[in-house]
Predict the structure.
Amino acid sequence: MKRIYLIGYMGAGKTTVGKELARQMNLSFIDLDHYIEARYHKTVRRLFEEKGEAVFRDIECKLLREAGMIEDVVISTGGGTPCFFDNMSYMNQTGTTVYLKTSSAELAKRLELVKHTRPVLKGLFGENLKQFITDNLEKRDLWYKQALVIFDAEKMLTDNGVNVLTCALKKLL
């Protein structure tokens, strides 16, 4: 039985790597945000807006535990998932946690291209975007570093890069 949780900041590649890792290891794949959206028939963004962060984090915690009962799966978590309740401890007890570590500079490059899909990044550009990410990474570092595997996901620029990175990660698992 395998259960792998991918954690890290938005833009770290959790979904991209998760799908490829699941394919290579012949496991199921769950993106926790999509799992929540399918259950509530609303986007994570809308849940945040309508219910507030506290209610969203409660929903996220419950559905993490539900998804965490599935065997032979790779679960891509939301960037904040490990930082609330005892989610990090739960994930470490029920599977292998992998922190896809990426620098704030690289995350800023990746997120600059898709920030229109990330409301929290609205209005942030250049150095302001990088500083916002740096500040958030510092706050989340305590939880992210509790991962059983810390993996450098910095050089994931092409499909081939994703494949190479995923093959290297698979060897650690």
Remarks:
- The longest strand covers residues 96-101.
- The CA atoms of residues 68 and 94 lie 7 Å apart.
